[in-house]
Design a protein that fits this description.
The chain is an alpha+beta fold. It is built from four helices and five strands, in the order E-E-H-E-H-H-E-E-H. It has a domain at about 35-110: Multidrug-efflux Transporter Regulator, Chain: A, Domain 2 (Orthogonal Bundle). The radius of gyration is 20 Å and the shape is flat.
């Protein structure tokens, strides 16, 4: 919910609430945030950077069907929305793996010594 200086209130869509929370978290952790606009069609370099992988890995994922691409001339282009969805799925997979590792660690705490 957004409260204006004049006392007015407006309910914000969940997507905007998440974006604002992410921006505020970034500011709190790193002291700054950059807000930009991504085009609907991304180059392989930009897509790979967003996904945190190399361009060869990204192109391997295309061959495996993990993400689709289109051609503009001889250059691969990627859908911004699909790249961001894959980034979110990858992050969720990493979080789940970390949660599983933590649970395993807690379950077998007696085997660890400090």
């Amino acid at each position: 919910m957004l409260r204006f200086a004049d006392g007015g209130v407006k309910e914000l869509p969940a997507s905007i609430q998440r974006m604002l929370l992410g921006a505020l978290t970034s500011i709190a952790q790193q002291g700054s945030v950059t807000i930009g606009q991504l085009p609907e069609s991304l180059t392989s370099t930009v897509a790979a950077d967003l996904l945190g992988v190399s361009r060869p890995t990204l192109m391997k994922w295309v061959k495996e069907g993990r993400i689709s691409s289109s051609k503009k001339g001889s250059h691969a282009r990627f859908s911004r929305d699909e790249v961001l969805e894959l980034r979110d799925r990858n992050a969720a997979t990493r979080r789940a793996a970390l949660d599983e590792l933590r649970a395993l660690d807690e379950e077998h705490q007696e085997f660890f010594t400090d």
